Amino acid sequence: MGLTIAQKIIKNHLVEGDMTPGSEIALKIDQTLTQDATGTMAYLEFEAIGIDRVKTERSVAYIDHNTLQCGFENADDHIYIQSVAKKHGIYFSRPGNGICHQVHLERFGIPGKTLIGSDSHTPTGGGIGMLAMGAGGLDVAVAMGGGAYYITMPKMYKVNLTGKLNPFVTAKDVSLEILRILSVKGGVGAIIEWGGEGIKTLSVPERATITNMGTELGATTSIFPSDEITKAFLEAEGRGADFVPLESDPDAVYDRIIDIDLSTLEPLIACPHSPDNVVKVSEVEDTKVDQVCIGSCTNSSLSDMLKVAALLKGRTIDPSVSLSISPGSKQVLSMLASSGALGDILASGARLLECACGPCIGMGFSPNSAGVSLRTFNRNFLGRSGTKDGNVYLVSPETAVAAAVFGKITDPRKLGEAPVITIPEKYAIDDSAVIEPASADEAKNLEVKRGPNIKPFPDSHPVTDEISAKLVLKVGDNITTDHIMPAGAKILPYRSNIPFLSQFCFTVCDEKFPENAKAAGQSFIIGGSNYGQGSSREHAALVPLYLGVRAVIAKSFARIHAANLINAGIMPLTFENPEDYDKLDQNDELCMEGIFEGMDSGKITLCNKTKNICVKLACSFTDRQKAILKAGGLLGYTKGE
Ligand code: MIC
Ligand code: SF4
């Protein structure tokens, strides 16, 4: 039987396990990336593991999330990451150099290699045929130390593209179409391979938009073949030597095949507050728009920005709209400047922001109250923009420009002729903002600089055979990590200060959660399906751990969050019968007994002492996961404590 692209890469990197879907496999990791918001914790964990030098082929630390610096916290964290990177063999991408995924694609990604990153949009690397996955910071720390990365062997899905996109229909619309088809949980447990004749019409930045947003499907990752188009991209980046061709075998077998004819697609839009709430732009036309944001790791490539500049040329934006532009990298910004396109953007009345995540994670540029914001980003979860009642829509750069120009949601085809842009044969290469690590010898005398923002880890709590605890919170389906541990300008600077963060845990759902959880001492949380979707932030597990949460019981879990819970020593358990969800209410007193035996048999009994009933919970922990839970988390397990 032939192999898919992902199966080939997995086979080449398999350290443990067999490639049967659903079973646990361990992979050798070639490259890692971190960003600063998850990076401080990841490097503290790497230091705690106690390995001197990274063992990967390439590890890069990016500063792109926490760049507002309203106080000492961000700057201290930047210095900590820069110094820890220099000492331990990690490349350091300075603030201003760009968003991790854009820069990694441009300068470091290599087809056929494995990459894990402490950011859920790491699958952007799939645009050049990498097996690139988002992971918790602790998993990245272990991989930097040479440890394997454990995942459940995914199923294989294929999206077959035929035809060609019409003018003003873009790769972003392809992403929105697949979200419309599959929903935010439709990719859980699967790797999505993109193929068919239609992919020959898609450039690497377009492919990267699609693999980036595959994260919103809950997929383990998404991947394109590495072909002539990949080769041309790497050559234009001066990295032709990194090219290796990669494709699936003609007789590769897929668990599901989805056909999309590109020529039938229309401009699409994801309405508030979920990326899969997708309709045609024409269906919501004329909605008044207050703000438009162009950028983020989904749509900030040079080609995206050149198209935006060409459409804005000679136009001014509607006086009632505020438009922000954040180019994805210094390379993109400098080429925009040298080509004159930046002048066209500025002349339109746009506000130029830093090459960073910015508004995407609520770091400034929050919309007005109840404002409508059209964004080229990948997530529009409630409150993520920083404005609680903001209404965020997700669109292509072309649709974003149409809204900025006309002041209301408008089908971009009303902008006239589609822009024809030419991508230079060579990108402007300047790696001066990437600082190389010290040599092993030099590193011995280097000191790691730690600011007062860095606080100790929460204490670990090894799982015990019996846990009696209160049900402190019951939530519904599709709870995101932005609900569990919100981000934004006021909170994000405290990513290495778990006690401070704990004041904000779950407050989007229940203002009193931190207080109630603390008062309860030990607690359980009940969730619906796809619990923990969204980001890779391990803080969404470490903070509940700090607040006393010992188990989360849900109808189903998102992949990275389930792994983060186990890594923190919290049990993710599911209902054997999902209807039992209705038998448990907030504030009920619950008890689990015989947990160790239950972990082995795959069934744990949960008794509701308030209602005098018991329900069955399911778990399928591997021996390794059981050992991690009994050690109180992956850190203790790795250190052999
Ligand atoms: C996000 O897009 O939600 C983030 C911010 O990039 C997160 C990481 C984080 O919370 O620091 C992600 O996607 O993993
Ligand atoms: Fe940054 Fe937004 Fe991309 Fe997350 S999704 S890495 S916050 S640009």
Summarize this structure briefly.
By secondary structure, this protein is α/β, with parallel strands linked by helices. It contains 21 helices and 27 strands. Helix 2 packs across helix 5.
Protein architecture, described:
With 641 residues, the chain is an alpha/beta fold. Helices cover 29% and strands 19% of the residues. It contains 21 helices and 27 strands. The strands form six sheets. It has a seven-stranded mixed barrel with strand order 21-22-23-24-27-26-25, surrounded by four helices. A six-stranded mixed sheet has the order 7-6-3-4-5-20. Strand 9, helix 6 (171-182) and strand 10 (190-195) form a beta-alpha-beta unit. The longest helix has 17 residues, at 72-88. The mean pLDDT is 97. Bound molecules: alpha-methylisocitric acid and iron/sulfur cluster. Residues 37-38, 65, 119-121, 134, 361, 487, 534-537 line the site of alpha-methylisocitric acid (MIC).
